[in-house]
Structures are given as C-alpha cells and as structure tokens.
Design goal:
The radius of gyration is 21 Å and the shape is globular. Helix content is 42%, strand content 20%. A six-stranded mixed beta sheet has the order 2-1-3-12-4-13, with helices on both faces. Strands 8-7-9-6-10 form a five-stranded mixed beta sheet. The protein has twelve helices and 13 strands. The chain folds into two domains: 136 residues, Periplasmic binding protein-like II (D-Maltodextrin-Binding Protein, domain 2), CATH 3.40.190; 101 residues, D-Maltodextrin-Binding Protein, domain 2, CATH 3.40.190.
Length: 289
C-alpha cells in the first residue's frame, strides 16, 4: 500500500471528508440553529431548508435543533452553530455580541415583520387573563417574549406575578405544546406566538378546534435570525443573501409557503426596543417588590 493510499484509508476510517474540486479542502458545514419554540419538529421542513440554503450558499448546511432558547444561545456562544432563529427577547438580552441577520415576514400579518402574543383557553368559564387567577397556566419557553415575558409583564402591571397569581404554572418549551396542553385541559390558559397559533389553525385544525383567544397583545418585532458578531462575515453574508433571496427562486418560494412566511427582510435592532423596554420594566418591578 503506498503512502498516498494509506492517507486516504486513514482519512476515511476517521470519518473525514475530502473535496478534490480545484484541489481545495471541503468547506466546513454551515450549522443553523432552531428550536421547537418557533418551528416545530418537522423533518421534511428541515431537510428542505438545508437543501435550499446549501444550494443558495454553495455550502453544505445542517439544521441543528435544541430544545430551548437557552440551549441555542449556548450553541451560538460556543460556535456549535453559526447562526440561529431565536426570539426577540434573547436577542435583546445578548445584543452586545449578536448581529441581526434577518427578520421573517409574517404571512399571517399582512406580510410584515411583526407578530403578537395571544392568551388562549379552552375553559368556557375563562374570558380574560383576570379569570385565570388561581388556575393552571402554560408558558412556552422561559426566554420567549410572547410565551412568557408578555403575560408576566401584564401581571406585573396588575401588581402581581405568576407564582402569586396562578395556582400552578409550567413551561412546555414549545408553542404547539402550549396549545396541546390547553386543548387537553392540562392548563386553563396559556400564552402563544400568534404566528405559530395561526399556522396550527391552518395545518392542524383539530389541535386548535376547542381553543379560543381571550387576549391579544400589541405588535412586536418577529423572532429574528441572528449570528455572533465574531462569526465569519463571508459565511454570514452568504447566509443572509440566501434568506433575503428566498422569494426569488421556485424552491425558496415553495419553502416560504410551507413556513407561512412572505420572505425575509434585513430588519433593524431598533425594531426590538419595545421588547427590551418591557423586559427592563418587569425586572425593575420584580426587584422593587
């Protein structure tokens, strides 16, 4: 066995890969982080997203899922993923080291980069957040704006807080699971992202059939796609162009249709100022009590 042959055998046995195009080594896989908080586990969607981004970027792309926003933020910090679709709350809390890559356009809100927090119930005796006092409540993720911060803010504004207002509460780490918990009667109420709720109404009507909205928040900037400021600017630039150009290809438009999005826009950090202000007010009120 020649030295050159031995090199290839060792490389393959160690799980390595080699590209011979132009004599250059294969470019590393671009890893994009997701959570079930915004995008529920859907293998088909993930595969299509990887294929579209890979073709548009000219790179192999891998969708990496983690269970919570905290886990995705850790993955961004460690470099395990180069970019991620997160919520406005973790973005504003970590804006010092995060770069705003793009903001999705909500197909259920006149194609604007906006959404709302919805408080839902299936209990016929509940008609507002006030009626949920002493009952069981389902939040989505601890770092979710619509699924946790907004209802907590509403309670603080009314002189209370979750542990005093509700008999019990729990986190599902998924808006879809909040809807399921409320629909099944495991919780008397819950808070969800309007985009996810409307998507479920369209794609899984049986899940939302017995659930109704009892309160709707103001509009907030849609959960953004972000990347660490220290990330490779060339790779992040290619990723951003792929997202912004999704409407310009048949494959991209098909994927957007399945995601119930109208596209992506660059967005501005100022769009998330209302989330940041609300977060600060909740923290200030909590400390003062």
């Amino acid at each position: 066995m020649t030295g050159r042959t031995l090199f290839f055998v060792v490389l393959l046995c160690c799980g390595g890969s080699l590209a011979i195009a132009g004599g250059d080594a294969a470019r590393p896989v671009f890893r994009f982080g997701l959570t079930p908080v915004v995008l529920h586990e859907n293998t088909n969607i993930y595969v299509q997203l990887e294929r579209y981004l890979g073709k548009a970027m000219g790179l192999p792309v891998k969708a990496v899922q983690r269970g919570t926003y905290a886990q995705i933020m850790d993955a961004l910090k460690s470099g395990e993923v180069e970019a991620a679709w997160v919520c406005g709350l973790p973005y504003t809390r970590n804006a010092s080291w995060l770069h705003l890559v793009a903001v999705p356009l909500n197909g259920f809100d006149n194609n604007k980069p906006l959404y709302r927090s919805l408080i839902i119930t299936s209990n016929e005796n509940v008609h507002s957040l006030t009626d949920l006092r002493g009952r069981v409540y389902a939040f989505s993720d601890p770092d979710s704006n619509s699924g946790h911060l907004v209802p907590e803010y509403l309670l603080h504004r009314r002189g209370s807080r979750p542990d005093l207002f509700f008999r019990a509460f729990f986190f599902t780490n998924s808006h879809r699971k909040v809807v399921r918990a409320v629909s099944a009667g495991l919780a008397d109420g819950g808070s969800v992202d309007s985009y996810v709720f409307h998507a479920l109404q369209k794609d899984e009507p049986e899940l939302t059939r017995h659930v109704r909205v009892i309160e709707t928040s103001e509009e907030f900037a849609f959960p953004p796609v972000v990347a660490p400021k220290k990330a490779d600017s060339g790779r992040i630039g290619a990723f951003q162009r792929a997202l912004l150009g999704m409407r310009d290809s048949r494959q991209g438009r098909r994927l957007l249709h399945q995601l119930h999005l109208a596209g992506f826009t660059r967005g501005r950090p100022e769009m998330f100022a209302s989330i940041q202000a609300m977060d600060r007010e909740v923290f200030t009120l909590a400390v003062s009590r």
